[in-house]
Amino acid sequence: MDNPLETLLASLDGTVAVEDGRVVVKDEAGLRGEPIDRLAHTAVFGSPQERGAARWLLWELGQALGIYSTTIHPLYIARGKGEVPSGFTVPAMNLRAMTYDMARAVFRAAIPRRVGAMIFEIARSEIGYTDQRPSEYISSVLAAAIKEGYRGPLFVQGDHFQVSASRYAKDPEGELNAVRELTEEALQAGFFNIDVDTSTLVDLSKPTVDEQQRLNYTLCAELTAFIREREPEGITVSVGGEIGEVGGKNSDERELRAFMDGFNRTLPEGMVGLSKISIQTGTSHGGVVLPDGSLAQVAIDFDVMRQLSEIARKEYGMGGAVQHGASTLPDEAFNEFVKAGALEVHLATGFQNIIYDLLPEALREEVYAWLKEHYKKNWKPGQTEEQFLYKERKRALGPFKAQFWGLPEELKGTIRERLEAKFGFLFEQLEVVDTLDLAVRYAPRIEMHRSLADYLGGEAAGEDVEGLAD
Asked: Which residues have a Cβ under 8 Å from the Cβ of 273 and sit 6 or more positions away?
């Protein structure tokens, strides 16, 4: 059998070599041409051995070029202490489709603006329906960074590593083990930022706020300890908690204090806790779809964000509060997050919408026909076809992944341009322009070389994510 690494190196036209066990870049300009495109594609669509070799090579190329996955925890804690100005909100971007091209658009917007305070993330549910395990996801981001000439820290995050309430009710330990296994897989892949989401277990029927939040804060503390016991030496993983499920009732300060006080009591003494807390202010994932397929206007309570973010910083030493489900908001809303002191804002569906809007009509119709066949059970009474397709079309991203990646280069270029403009707008509105030096200052660069053998051992199988929040 051919050596997968040797075969891969031969395909890179002499731009990369392995010398004394270390990856060496011989011709960066040449690598950033077609070779890196081929390497990115192999990391996703190659055979298991080819994928493993490509992912190892991309990780080591990052080490060689000064592109390093790390934690945003020190920056957030510095902000909580007032050492860092609070005049920006970090965008956390969920790249669901065409991840290599989408990440290229991020870097093309970020590099000229010197943006460093930005997060690439993927949720537990997204890992399933987009068919992107953590190792694949981070490899696509690394390849895009190399392609566009980025240098500096990469903050890669596990978003909504969520405990499903329905699955927990049936099999508590089995559901917790599923989250633990995914968390460990993500840490090994280089995700050094993890959002633990046990907010699905908040029980508002309980008589006191502490009782309502108890299962939430107890399990969040348990999963935080699990992460701390496995984080790499020199890295304090940024861990976030959540007090209100997105799409539910708006959060309040009693809930924040009940959760944080309970969490701090439960966490083992001396162990580092949370860097941030996610709250609900009136949004929902993907937005609220009207019968004609358009999105309803959403009333966000920025006063809730302002108040809870200040409490998170001043009373609990965290960087602040986090907003989910924001990508489909009107343009004028984004700078309001900065004014309200939001630490981080999560963005996903709006980027997916850009891709769907630009798809060839024939492919889009094929996707929609597939959805009607395979997800008809999710078509609720009274729901229009437009509402159904808008809500469910994310589920086609995995099954049609090869078709999306295989779009004509001219069309992919148009998609990248449209995404680049959107990312650039968001970076400016969230005021993260000129944050690269700040990110570098607080982001520890720990040299982390990996074993090729670890990557050639295969990857975890996907899990059934039906029933998880999106």
From this structure: 224, 239, 263, 264, 267
Buried b (16+ CB within 10 A) or exposed e, 312-322: bbeebebbbbb
The DSSP letter of residue 70 is E
Ordered per-residue pLDDT tens for the chain, 470 residues: 478 999 999 999 999 999 998 999 999 999 999 999 999 999 999 999 999 999 999 999 999 999 999 999 999 999 999 999 889 999 999 999 999 999 999 999 999 999 999 999 999 999 999 999 999 999 999 999 999 999 999 999 999 999 999 999 999 999 999 999 999 999 999 999 999 999 999 999 999 999 999 999 999 999 999 999 999 999 999 999 999 765 457 889 999 999 999 999 999 999 999 999 999 876 554 445 445 555 455 568 899 999 999 999 999 999 999 998 776 788 888 999 999 999 999 999 999 999 999 999 999 999 999 999 999 999 999 999 999 999 999 999 999 999 999 999 999 999 999 999 999 999 999 999 999 999 999 998 899 999 999 998 756 555 655 545 44
Question: pTM of this prediction?
Answer: 0.94
Are 259 and 215 in contact, with CB atoms under 8 Å apart? Answer: no
Q: Provide the CA 468 distance to its chain's centre, in angstroms.
A: 16
- Residue among 304, 452, 401, 460 at smallest CA distance from 100: 401
Structure tokens at 222: 């348990």
Contacts of 217 (CB under 8 A, 6+ apart): 198, 241, 258, 259, 260, 262, 263, 266
Backbone region of residue 160 per phi and psi (left: phi > 0; alpha: psi in -120 to 50; beta: other values): left
Domains of the chain, earliest start first:
4-64 (no CATH), 66-357+397-444 (3.20.20.70)
Angstrom distances, CA of residue 270 to CA of 80, 100, 265, 267: 19, 40, 11, 8
The token pair that represents 195 in the structure block: 């959002």
DSSP 18-39: EETTEEEES-HHHHTTHHHHHH
